[in-house]
Amino acid sequence: MGNVPHCRNEYTTRMNLKWIKAVLAAVVATASLDAAAQDLIARQAPIDRKLKSIDSLALQRQIRAEQSLYPAFDLYASWNNETVRCYPDSIIPESYTFDLTGFCMPTEHTRITDVFGYRPRRRRSHYGLDVKVYVGDTIRAAFDGKVRIVKNQGRRGYGKYVVIRHDNGLETVYGHLSKQLVKVDQLVKAGEPIALGGNTGRSTGSHLHFEVQFLGVRLNPADMFNFEKQDIVADTYTFQKHKSATQGASGKGLYYKVKRGDTLSKIAARQGTTVSRLCKLNRITRKTILRPGQVLRCS
Known about the structure:
By secondary structure, the protein is of the alpha+beta class. The protein folds into three domains: 1-69; 95-239, Glucose Permease (Domain IIA) (Distorted Sandwich); 252-299, Membrane-bound Lytic Murein Transglycosylase D, Chain A (Roll), CATH 3.10.350.10. Helices cover 31% and strands 26% of the residues. The chain has four helices and 18 strands. Strands 2, 5, 6, 7, 8, 9, 10, 11, 12 and 13 form a ten-stranded antiparallel sheet that branches. It has a two-stranded antiparallel ribbon with strand order 1-16. Strands 3-4 form a two-stranded antiparallel ribbon. A hairpin with a 4-residue loop joins strand 3 and strand 4. It is elongated, with a radius of gyration of 36 Å.
């Protein structure tokens, strides 16, 4: 009987050793699993980065595809092939800056025959610049973009005209054309021929009627394009909603069309400049006789 306690103790010791070994084995297995998991995560990380890169490239391609289908799609809610000003429900920002780099002058001609603004004699506004061109002269796209409208108003308004929406958010209108060289929904590059100059529509002589619009708001092309120097006025143009609303009424601008009874001093006062400045810009003298309809450069 005296050996029984000793056997029990030995048995207990063996069981404790087995339990300890089991625990140690479990710990080692867990540690091995953790290490394997960490190795797996480490191996997975570059794959995740590659997948993210692929996703990013796919998203960029999708964005570029949408941009090519609908230029400035983040600004314009619709694409309309019928109406020039078709954005009655658009939210017009208080301010927006356009990138004008990558431009091309729509024509090589430099003589302005009519300016942007209100025409008192006709009691209506003129929403573009008229540039003297001849029938058959090449008219080019001002910026990269997509042709939105190619139509003919017959003897009314623009006559044969083209509207292009550009990647920078602007839209340009080319009126009184003799022939259109592009089709609706065609992608064009800056400088690409889009039409030939003409004398169609409400026109009294061959010229290009050139408009610039933003969400249906007409902007003065002379604030962006300097036809005399065949260059843009600056690399960017900032649209101001409040200024645009009063721009036509103010009468001030890069050019001024002489009206009956105008004198150099009256024009200088109205345009916020001096007679000397007007004479220098237009290479005239104080004694030069002004003709109604003559266009003077004012700044």
